[in-house]
From TrEMBL:
Protein name: Swiss Army Knife RNA repair protein HAD domain-containing protein
Ranges of compositional bias, category Basic and acidic residues: 67-77
Region named Disordered: 1-77
GO BP annotation list: box C/D sno(s)RNA 3'-end processing
Gene Ontology MF term list: histone H2AQ104 methyltransferase activity; RNA binding; rRNA methyltransferase activity
Length: 761
């Protein structure tokens, strides 16, 4: 799998006009803050006491409620790493001067998608725009990453001590580090400490991982103490239109918290000369690369290394995830009721910001500053959403596509597992050999694609969303059977590959030439034998053989007017309806994919005429590639077999015209917006943190954000700022990834000391 761009918390920051004086007025109160009265969201636990025996350290900040003017910080003030509010666990060994005197290396491990394969919202269940809402910090209740249910995976999994969810390669690195007396071993996560601290301690101890420190983000936002002159200032444009006093918060971003903490580590233990980080997020990796260079330049370190961790995603049990998300939506809507009745706004993760030690006063650790004014929540209605209309294939057909069409080579990591799978799951119907029928594009044949992303639903996209009546008529209507012939293979920039396909005409498949609707149907110069893969996973060598196999099956013909997918429902589905949709339809509405109706054939007609019909097979997410990038492939190669010879058969897969159904948010009716309310350019510059970005690059990135917003129906309004941030985050992650890898290639040829970047193998 490629590098993840998941927005699991507020990692990157947004520029704001907040002054340093505002920062000094942060109320450093005891965290966590209790939930508002009558809040539908659970209060976070009130302390971080870890009742785990003698090898623990309890930590919390003190409630002084003072500002810099009232209590100026003395330059002689004693700062200790072990009083840092981000610490949720510390070994008592750290109080032993003999123990810490041996440190020469600090090994720092991220938690989510690094040490532990924390689940994200499953893209097979939810519309992409709704996933952005779920993972945003302040849009759907507390959001995915502040919800304790995202780490509650069921009694069976927890009884197994989360077996299968740990990244065992990183577990081995943690154990190797903890056994080395010269290494300080730290778990450093962007998870909210008050919410997840005890859970994290419990999980790592169940795995018998011996960290010296477990560190989490102590707060997501910190309340700014209003200045005496604030009443005379102009009201913030983001402030809700109400009589309530306007509260202003400082957003605390994950990278800033980690950056500050690691600086404190280096000041606390100056004998440490080597730092090694394991992380998965490109935005953080790029910034840590810059921080590492700074530490090298300042002679605070002699060696700095980052290992990029990439592992396949694991998801919650579908029913468990649906229940969790629907509960989040219900809690959000109850919060809307509270606000409409004059109750308080919901601000998740309120806490204290670590006080900056004197040595870091001029380092601008918390720049750029971003303020947050609580926004009125909006009611969310979950409904069925058509992601795209296309030619879908049964699970049996998709399995054969993944296994037989360039899916695995002997150098790929999954080859041996795939061979074992074939030996135990295939019959003798000519598909039992793991050797692929059709090879991948030439430039990819010697590469290990073991971590590339393989789409969970191989299909031919005909149009995004619901097709127009004209398009549906031209493709044969929903439920029509389509004979899809694989024509060639293609790739783009060594980062994605696909199969180019075309519609196979009836006349060239029948043994006796019957079945065509005209002379054009029967004309074909290709005399190769035909191999037809049916929905049941069996091979047939002519259309007549396929027809004979399915003649006794009931017809799957569904008229356009009677199809439940052809007309939108005017009723918002109930929770029971939503659960039934996902459990019974498998994401393609009510169209069965395992039957064949040769009396009602559909056609491959694309809405976008400048794109070749194709099936995206795999892509390298590490390089910021997305599945939709396959539409940019223009160079195609003839099919060859695993030995490099021209493929001797015409390969046809039987598919069905259907709509990909997901759950998403019902769009709210809003007034037309004539002016953009969020500056995309400023947002991009702040998130990338790249002062050297050119005007041309910025313009291209702004245009890419606009195109993605249009696809997801996100208007440029302040109310949609969180969703826009999610889109920009994804774009900036891809930008930072490409820049990072390019910088690494240049650095590799340099003789100067540079931070090392490695990719976990």
């Amino acid at each position: 799998m490629g590098l993840k761009t998941t927005d699991n918390d507020e990692t990157c920051s947004i520029a704001s006009d907040i002054s340093n004086t505002d920062t000094d007025r942060i109320i450093r109160s005891t965290f966590p803050s209790p939930s508002p009265p009558n809040s539908p969201f659970p209060a976070t636990f009130s302390n971080m006491d870890n009742n785990n025996g003698s090898n623990t350290y309890s930590n919390s900040t003190t409630n002084n409620n003072t500002n810099k003017e009232d209590d100026p910080v003395s330059e002689k003030e004693d700062y200790s790493l072990l009083t840092h509010p981000a610490i949720v666990f510390a070994s008592k060994r750290l109080s032993d001067s003999n123990y810490v005197s041996r440190f020469h290396t600090v090994n720092v491990f991220d938690f989510d998608q690094t040490l532990f394969q924390s689940p994200l919202p499953n893209p097979a269940l939810w519309d992409p725009s709704f996933i952005g809402i779920l993972t945003s910090w302040a849009y759907c209740g507390t959001g995915w990453w502040h919800n304790p249910g995202t780490l509650e995976m069921g009694p069976e999994i927890e009884a197994s001590l989360w077996d299968g969810w740990w990244n065992e390669a990183i577990v081995a690195k943690v154990r190797e580090s903890s056994e080395d007396p010269g290494c300080l071993t730290i778990l450093l996560t962007g998870r909210n400490g008050p919410t997840f601290g005890q859970k994290l301690v419990s999980m790592v101890q169940s795995k018998a991982l011996d960290f010296d420190l477990i560190v989490a983000k102590p707060t997501t936002v910190a309340l700014l103490d209003p200045s005496p002159s604030s009443a005379s200032k102009k009201v913030d444009k983001k402030a809700p239109a109400s009589s309530k006093p306007v509260e202003k918060y400082l957003k605390v971003h994950t990278f800033n918290t980690k950056h500050d903490f690691l600086y404190n580590v280096l000041y606390e233990y100056p004998a440490i000369r080597t730092m090694h980080l394991w992380d998965d997020r490109p935005c953080q990796i790029a910034k840590f690369h810059q921080a590492g260079q700074e530490w090298l330049d300042k002679k605070m370190l002699d060696h700095f290394e980052i290992t990029i961790v990439q592992e396949p995603m694991i998801y919650l049990d579908p029913q468990r995830e649906i229940d969790l998300v629907l509960a989040m939506v219900e809690a959000n809507n109850r919060q809307v009721d509270i606000e409409e009745q004059g109750g308080p706004f919901l601000v998740p993760g309120v806490g204290a910001v670590p006080r900056t030690r004197p040595e870091l006063r001029d380092r601008k650790i918390w720049d750029p500053y971003e303020t947050y004014v609580p926004q009125k929540r909006h009611r969310i209605e979950v409904t069925r959403v058509v992601r795209y209309t296309g030619v879908m294939f049964s699970e049996a057909v998709q399995r054969i596509m993944r296994d037989k069409l360039g899916g695995s080579h002997p150098q790929d990591r999954q080859y041996q597992q795939l061979q074992h799978y074939h030996d135990h799951h295939y019959n003798d119907n000519d598909v039992h050999d793991a050797k692929p029928w059709v090879d991948r594009p030439l430039v990819l044949r010697d590469q290990d694609l073991g971590k590339w992303v393989i789409p969970d639903d191989l299909h031919v996209t005909l149009c995004l969303g619901t097709g127009t009546p004209e398009l549906l008529e031209s493709i044969g209507g929903l439920g029509a059977t389509v004979l899809v012939e694989v024509e060639s293979v293609g790739e783009l920039e060594n980062r994605i590959w696909a199969l180019k396909v075309k519609e196979m005409k009836m006349g060239v498949l029948s043994d006796n030439g019957e079945g065509g609707d005209g002379e054009q149907e029967g004309q074909d110069d290709d005399t190769r034998e035909v191999r037809i893969v049916a929905p049941n996973g069996h091979l047939y060598f002519s259309l007549d053989a396929l027809r004979a196999a399915y003649i006794s099956r009931p017809s799957t013909a569904i008229s356009l007017s009677s199809s439940p997918m052809s007309t939108p429902s005017t009723r918002t589905p109930s929770i029971q309806d939503q659960e039934a949709i996902l459990s019974s339809s498998h994401g393609v509405g009510d169209i069965p994919l395992d039957l064949v109706d040769l009396d009602r054939l559909g056609h491959i007609v694309l809405k976008k005429v400048d794109t070749a019909p194709h099936i995206t097979m795999a892509y390298d997410k590490l390089n910021g590639t997305r599945a939709m990038d396959s539409g940019k492939i223009t160079q195609w190669e003839s099919l060859t077999d695993a030995d490099g010879h021209p493929y001797p058969y015409r390969l046809v897969f039987v598919g069905t015209v259907a709509e990909k159904m997901l759950l998403g948010m019902k769009a709210r009716k809003t007034a037309a917006v004539t002016k953009a309310e969020v500056s995309l350019g400023n947002l991009i510059k702040s998130l990338t943190g790249d002062k050297t970005i050119t005007g041309k690059e910025l313009g291209e990135m702004v245009q890419a954000v606009k195109e993605e917003m249009e696809k997801l129906s996100v208007e440029n309004r302040l109310a949609n700022e969180e969703r826009i941030m999610t889109i920009v985050h994804d774009l900036c992650d891809r930008y930072e990834t490409k820049k990072l890898l390019s910088h690494h290639n240049v650095a590799s040829a340099s003789t100067m000391p540079m931070p090392t970047i490695a990719i976990q193998e």
